[in-house]
DNA sequence: CCGTATCCTTGCCGATACTG
DNA sequence: CAGTATCGGCAAGGATACGG
């Protein structure tokens, strides 16, 4: 899988590069983790978990995660508005793989 | 593993965050991939594989990868100088895990 | 050949104010 | 409550010149 990336295409076209692009940035992984832990979470709830994130950044990240189909956004047409975010099946399957990175990190942390 | 990160600590302390910090940036993964493929590679050789990378960025990245003990730098005391870079065992073990991300990406790429 | 030094550009992210 | 709009800071990365 990995070993053919150089001959056949450039790095941008690899599955690895694609996967990383889904979770790049400072907060996406933490958002996914929160959704994994709490399952269904509202906007301001997420803001409290992700201490110090700005409205703009959270909003941007949620939109990207949704368009990458890792999370599901469910909007209730009411006043005041209510929106719930949760992991999609696709998002859950990604988290399973990322857990392996977590385990490697715990085992191999230096110092 | 993942599920306890919120209660026990913040995201910065997780193994996952640590692992990602090792390969963050635009080029580190590509460098590791090159070393996996070609095993022993010299500085200017890497520069040719990583089209458009600047001397400074390549130099910085190699130093960080070395201090994180993912790669090995071997210098030959001669003129003109000769330096060879290769994956450490630790680097190889990380690549094995990253391959899983690559596979997930290939399977789940949209469009 | 293998870098370092310097300056510059760019894109992510934060802060704040405002809206349906 | 759940965002959007606008402005601005800051650090990663790029371009180029130079050094051992």
From TrEMBL, chains A, B:
InterPro entries: HTH_HxlR, WH-like_DNA-bd_sf, WH_DNA-bd_sf. It comes from the Bacteria. Keywords: DNA-binding, Transcription, Transcription regulation. Residues 14-111 form the HTH hxlR-type domain. PROSITE patterns: HTH_HXLR. Pfam families: HxlR. Coiled coil: none annotated. The keyword Nucleotidyltransferase does not apply. The keyword ATP-binding does not apply. Gene3D superfamilies: Winged helix-like DNA-binding domain superfamily/Winged helix DNA-binding domain. GO terms for molecular function: DNA binding. This is Transcriptional regulator. It comes from Ruthenibacterium lactatiformans. The lineage of its organism: Bacteria, Bacillati, Bacillota, Clostridia, Eubacteriales.
């Amino acid at each position: 899988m990995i070993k053919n990336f150089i001959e056949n295409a450039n790095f941008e076209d690899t599955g690895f590069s694609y996967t990383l692009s889904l979770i790049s940035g400072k907060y996406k992984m933490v958002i996914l983790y929160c959704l994994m832990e709490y399952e269904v979470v509202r906007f301001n709830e997420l803001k409290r978990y992700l201490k110090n994130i700005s409205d703009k950044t959270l909003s941007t990240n949620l939109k990207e995660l949704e368009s990458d189909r890792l999370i599901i956004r469910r909007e209730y047409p009411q006043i005041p508005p209510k929106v719930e975010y949760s992991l999609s099946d696709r998002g859950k399957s990604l988290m399973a793989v990322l857990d392996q990175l977590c385990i490697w990190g715990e085992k191999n942390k230096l110092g």
